[in-house]
Amino acid sequence: MGTECRADAQLSDYAARVLEQVAVAPGCRLLTVSSPGLARAASPGQFALLGCGTGYDPFLRRPLSFHRVDVKRGKVSFLYRVKGSGTQWLAERRRGDVIPVLGPLGRGFRHSDRGKRGLLVGAGLGAAPLLFLAERLSRQAWSLTVLLGAPTRTGILRADAFERFGTVRTVTEDGSTPKKGTILDLLQEEINRGGWDTIYACGPRVVLKAVQEISARTGIPAQISVEERMACGLGACLGCACRSASSSGYLRVCREGPVFDAGEVILDD
Amino acid sequence: MGTECRADAQLSDYAARVLEQVAVAPGCRLLTVSSPGLARAASPGQFALLGCGTGYDPFLRRPLSFHRVDVKRGKVSFLYRVKGSGTQWLAERRRGDVIPVLGPLGRGFRHSDRGKRGLLVGAGLGAAPLLFLAERLSRQAWSLTVLLGAPTRTGILRADAFERFGTVRTVTEDGSTPKKGTILDLLQEEINRGGWDTIYACGPRVVLKAVQEISARTGIPAQISVEERMACGLGACLGCACRSASSSGYLRVCREGPVFDAGEVILDD
Amino acid sequence: MIDLSVEVAGIRMQNPVLVASGTFGCGEEYSPLFDVGRLGALVTKGITLKPWQGNKPPRICETPAGLLNAVGLQNPGVDAFIHEILPVMKGYGVPVIANIAGFTKEEFVEIAERLTGTGVDGLEINISCPNVKSGGMALGTVPELAAEVVEAVVESTSLPVIVKLTPNVTDIVALARAVTDAGADALSLINTLLGMAIDIKSRRPVLGNVLGGLSGPAIRPVAVRAVWQVSQAVDVPVIGMGGICRGEDALEFILAGATAVAVGSAHFRDPLAAMKIISYLEHYCEENGINDWQKLIGTAWKNK
Amino acid sequence: MIDLSVEVAGIRMQNPVLVASGTFGCGEEYSPLFDVGRLGALVTKGITLKPWQGNKPPRICETPAGLLNAVGLQNPGVDAFIHEILPVMKGYGVPVIANIAGFTKEEFVEIAERLTGTGVDGLEINISCPNVKSGGMALGTVPELAAEVVEAVVESTSLPVIVKLTPNVTDIVALARAVTDAGADALSLINTLLGMAIDIKSRRPVLGNVLGGLSGPAIRPVAVRAVWQVSQAVDVPVIGMGGICRGEDALEFILAGATAVAVGSAHFRDPLAAMKIISYLEHYCEENGINDWQKLIGTAWKNK
Ligand SMILES: Cc1cc2nc3c(=O)[nH]c(=O)nc-3n(C[C@H](O)[C@H](O)[C@H](O)COP(=O)(O)OP(=O)(O)OC[C@H]3O[C@@H](n4cnc5c(N)ncnc54)[C@H](O)[C@@H]3O)c2cc1C
Ligand SMILES: Cc1cc2nc3c(=O)[nH]c(=O)nc-3n(C[C@H](O)[C@H](O)[C@H](O)COP(=O)(O)OP(=O)(O)OC[C@H]3O[C@@H](n4cnc5c(N)ncnc54)[C@H](O)[C@@H]3O)c2cc1C
Ligand SMILES: Cc1cc2nc3c(=O)[nH]c(=O)nc-3n(C[C@H](O)[C@H](O)[C@H](O)COP(=O)(O)O)c2cc1C
Ligand SMILES: Cc1cc2nc3c(=O)[nH]c(=O)nc-3n(C[C@H](O)[C@H](O)[C@H](O)COP(=O)(O)O)c2cc1C
Ligand code: FES
Ligand code: FES
User: What residues in chain A have their Cβ under 8 A from chain D's Cβ atoms?
Assistant: First the structure.
């Protein structure tokens, strides 16, 4: 994991061949493609734009975060929820099919040099970019705790995969896992316990806002991965605006983000 | 083959499951679907509208003639050329996929009670509706000659299948079959030889116009299968207009056609 | 089951899902596929005073997520309509709205007069067809001229008068206001967008008529915008149309301010589209516990 | 290799494939993907006099075969443009056309004056942006007002002046004539169609700005029609745009009367679209033995 990623060097529109696609939970799929160049270039927190459909509907590409990257084997995985027409099309791709994948894009998670105790907060699909991050951080001898939360048991994604890289704690709103509550309850517990150098979070806005608030209150630096509707993914169209905390203007989620320091942006509803 | 088809009785939007799809020539495919209801209802010369694509592009359905119908096994086949986005999508369907098929539509070939010596003229893809016709006519003890023409050898489609129902004569413009020339040369030869009760033709406009002219000149009744761009396929939108020979107005290819008596329509370019 | 019935321009409909003029024949074409009597209302193809043979083919050209058409008002004329087509359409037991197209104000009046008392339930004045050259378009784009036509028709008939507007104008709200002031009981919007396509092989226009009208999902955002703008500006009900293919689309128009919707091009992709939309609306109301579904009309701007 | 070079408004371009304003950043964003210096010309995002922060998100909404955008002219203002962005854009060695947007005639003039002599190769007057509320639209829809702006800008600068027209008008030909009479050296058409979308879950408009501009393949038929109509009515070259995604589409615009084309939304689906279009046009000319490819311009109406 680089400090400032130098994505541009290998940014390309890759023709990625599907190696495997499996359902990991209801409506939730793990897609693995072969793309050695992309695998080499990708950093945790960055994303790609996947071309969906053969005609012009759907028209726009879909942004998905890198979930796992196996540089040696040239494999890149995406963890995604089937939501609308684009992800539905992706879900129908089978081994051997080719998907256009533009990436790597954006600014991923950054080093913090304060220390190596990391708290990863993944609400629902927010788990997607965190596995890649967990792997890279653990390689650099970070000690990690991963919080995974969802409304119900089947929404807790990839807990077993995370276990290789740190302590995993899960929570569900309906109590279908041992612990019942929201991920924010869990987060507050861990914050109370203390000893964290950096928080990395991904998930719905309400979770990210809570992380912003905790970071501001406790002084623990946090990095949050933000979502916004995108067109170009390259910083050219100004479509993916997120309000800047330091100026009166906007930042581009696809360029200055998707990972922002918690204090960098204002998340409106 | 009925006299006036009573298509409406079983007209429906069938969810047809693909049984098989094979390439029969470069860019030319034979698609077989399972649809017992459609198989029972279909008559030679009628067609169906096949839904293509999952989004709204392509938007319109594609008209294809019934090429073979196996009522007993509930199978319907289409012979088609991959031309644009719709047929490209069809070409990618595999066994088990479901295609929406609206049909049977239109007015097919009619009985002639003059006699049972039929001349079938299929230029290129014009062979598509003629196989189904040949099969039904031969069951009724017609004696048939089938003329198949194309620019080159690979454009002569399904000659072997036609041989079960009558004498097949082929011609290519580049002489890659024994006989060199156009299908109109072959047609003229057969007309000169004489003895025909009805001509049935399908193919490009230039061929259909020649058939109209021959029919008018010789008095041999001819039926031609006409193509026009379609939207509804049901007679509702008035999109598929073909100039009527008997009035100053237009006939609907999807309703009064696609098979017309040679004298019924004026084919503009 | 929830009651989806609605009144538009005094015409009572069992549900708010109509068919768009020119896309549904006289109902008979679709009757083998579903019970046409389940629709909110039937709308005829444009009816002219005299028989009209329409434009030369090709009349249809597919475009991304839509199509161009240049049918050009092919119809047997008002008298043949009354005697041959209307009885078939009335047979389904739902209101029949006659889409009428004149080339002059006087023609509009004459068609309206002839249709009055025939069993037709309402008139939809088509001052917006892009496929007829002489006058059709101009009448529909200049508020004063449009208002004159509407006023004359309203005076000449006891039938409810719906006015169908073209989106090919700078200010559709001004047009809507003008025809509403002139007495329109309801508005239909939108008609097709003026477009064309060129065949790169022949290097000529695809359509026999050169220009055509663009319809289908491609134009839906333009239609939603028109409904949103107009429904806030006038007091009469709006029938929304333009690219409605699914229940979600119909709901979008209702939220934008439409009292009813019409399904047009969608029939070409899914002949059962209108039926599916009706079912969707029923289920939507049930699932969301909506008793008076008409409260949904214009929610998107009422909530602003 | 065939010579595709072309002159538009006195600006020499190596080929007729430009990028559409607002879709291509300053070139730098796409430069990792292809050699931006192979384009016919670069066109900037709309430039205002003062820095402008744009609309609140969401700014993008996908629609069938297209998208709505309501970016709303976010830009650092003309001075920052000149000092920070222009040098980057000039670095690619192809003409740079500055798309300028004023809220008044005076602002247009002032932006034009500041850009004159900076290295910018031409101005594209954007009197047609649907995403700015105050005035922007009105200026661009009334021929007299549009002409006034154009006349004032033409007088204030030595740069070639291209005028970008909106399709959201009743009579685009009248608008084109007015601005051409006022001195426009070329026309760009079309800008986006005014549209909107409503989120049925929240029952509110999707876009932060409520209204947005529709672009992409969905609008291509409308754009081709505009180019067809306008190119026959005026004597200045037309830059065609609106849904051009592939070489065939570009050719369709050329046949309709465009001298050059611009690629916009297509970049979002295929970032290499413009490059592929250039290759297509080269191959097309070679295969069809076309030496003077400019003879293709307007063939569709010349052949009528
Ligand atoms: C940087 C980034 C990384 C992401 N990573 C992941 C991931 O790893 N796994 C995952 O499941 N999802 C991820 N998302 C969300 C994902 O992009 C959307 O769920 C997806 O685009 C929905 O497409 P659709 O066709 O299924 O839905 P539709 O609702 O049909 O999409 C319509 C349009 O809205 C856009 N859209 C819809 N939801 C979102 C959203 N949440 N964020 C941005 N655009 C949206 C689509 O891209 C499309 O343009 C990410 C989003 C961003 C911005
Ligand atoms: C009654 C009828 C029966 C037909 N039977 C056959 C058949 O059995 N086998 C076969 O290969 N072809 C047949 N055709 C032609 C076939 O419909 C077209 O080749 C096909 O629609 C092309 O679709 P596309 O997406 O590949 O091409 P595109 O060019 O992308 O299609 C664009 C649009 O034009 C329409 N279109 C293009 N060509 C034709 C055409 N020749 N006739 C009507 N519409 C057209 C398409 O339906 C679509 O709406 C028939 C046409 C008709 C009218
Ligand atoms: C083939 C066709 C024919 C049409 N004929 C008429 C007509 O006669 N009168 C009319 O007012 N509108 C006519 N329209 C316009 C439709 O009624 C409708 O306003 C438009 O198509 C937009 O809706 P849609 O996108 O759902 O099709 C026609 C549309 C099509 C596609
Ligand atoms: C995201 C986005 C931003 C745009 N910004 C501008 C702009 O600043 N100025 C302008 O004149 N046009 C702007 N446009 C319009 C395009 O330049 C072009 O006219 C329109 O999108 C149609 O072309 P297309 O369909 O190829 O995108 C913008 C379009 C998009 C999609
Ligand atoms: S998506 Fe275009 S700038 Fe971010
Ligand atoms: S395709 Fe609609 S009438 Fe024939």
Answer: 8-9, 11-13, 51, 55-61, 100, 102, 228-243, 248-250, 255, 268
Mean local confidence (pLDDT), B34-50: 97
For residue B175, being part of any structural domain is answered with yes
Q: Which domain holds residue B51?
A: 8-105
Does pLDDT of D123 surpass 70?
yes
pLDDT at C80 over 70: yes
Q: Where does ligand 4 bind, in terms of residues with CB under 6 Å?
A: A 231, 237, 239; D 20-23, 45-46, 69, 71, 73, 99, 126, 129, 164, 191-192, 215-216, 219, 241-244, 263-266
C285 in active site: no
For residue B57, is it within any domain? Answer: yes
Q: Name, in order, each residue with C-beta under 8 angstroms of D83's C-beta and a sequence gap of 6 or more.
A: none
Taking the CA atoms of residue B186, residue B190, residue B196 and residue B201 in that order, the dihedral angle to the nearest 10 degrees is 0
Task: Check: CB of residue B172 under 8 Å from CB of residue B146.
Answer: no
How large is the ipTM?
A: 0.96
Last residue of a domain, one of B41, B73, B105: B105
pLDDT in tens, D210-221: 999 999 999 999
Per-position DSSP letters for A73-137, written without gaps between them: TTEEEEEEE--SHHHHHHHT--TT-EEEEEEEESB------S-SEEEEEEEGGGHHHHHHHHHHH
DSSP letters of D238-293?
EEE-SS--SHHHHHHHHHHT-SEEEE-THHHH-TTHHHHHHHHHHHHHHHTT-SSG
Domain boundary, last residue among B82, B105, B128: B105
A88 with A157, same domain? Answer: no
Nearest CA in chain C to B231: C268
Domain total for chain B?
A: 2
Q: Which atom of ligand 6 is found nearest the CA of B232?
A: 2
Please identify, by atom number, the ligand 2 atom nearest to the C-alpha of residue B89: 25
pTM of model > 0.90: yes
Q: Are residues A125 and A208 in the same domain?
A: yes
Residues composing chain B = 269
Return the structure tokens found at B23: 């390439």
Q: Is residue A254 part of a domain?
A: no
- Say whether both A16 and A100 belong to one domain: yes
CA distances, C304 to each of B117, C43, C290, D67, D198 (Å)? 75, 33, 20, 23, 12
Ligand 6 centroid, distance to B209 Cα (angstroms): 22
Atom of ligand 3 nearest to the CA of C124: 11
Residue A265 within a domain: no
Question: Could you give the CA distance from residue A130 to residue A57 in angstroms, rounded to a whole number?
Answer: 31
Q: Are residues A79 and A134 in the same domain?
A: no
pLDDT in tens, A212-256: 999 999 999 999 999 999 999 999 999 999 999 998 899 999 999
Q: Which ligand is nearest to the CA of C64?
A: 2
Closest CA to B259 of B109, B94, B51, B136: B109
Q: Which of A56, A60, A85 best probes binding to C when mutated, by most C CB atoms within 10 angstroms?
A: A56
User: Do B123 and B43 share a domain, yes or no?
Assistant: no
Q: Are residues A193 and A138 in the same domain?
A: yes
Which of D219, D245, D295 is the mutation pick for testing C, counting most C CBs within 10 A?
A: D219
DSSP per-residue string spanning B119-135: EEEEEGGGHHHHHHHHH
The residue nearest atom 1 of ligand 4, judged by CA position, is A237
Could you tell me the CATH number of the domain that includes residue A22? 2.40.30.10
What pLDDT, on the 0 to 100 scale, is given for residue A9?
Answer: 53
Domain of residue B124, CATH code: 3.40.50.80
Q: Is residue D136's pLDDT more than 70?
A: no
**Mind listing the pLDDT tens digit for each residue in B127-144?**
999 999 999 999 999 999
**Same domain, yes or no, for B71 and B137?**
no
Q: Beta strands A265-266 and A241-244: pairing type?
A: antiparallel
- Residue B109 pLDDT greater than 80, yes or no: yes
Residues A128 and A87 in one domain: no
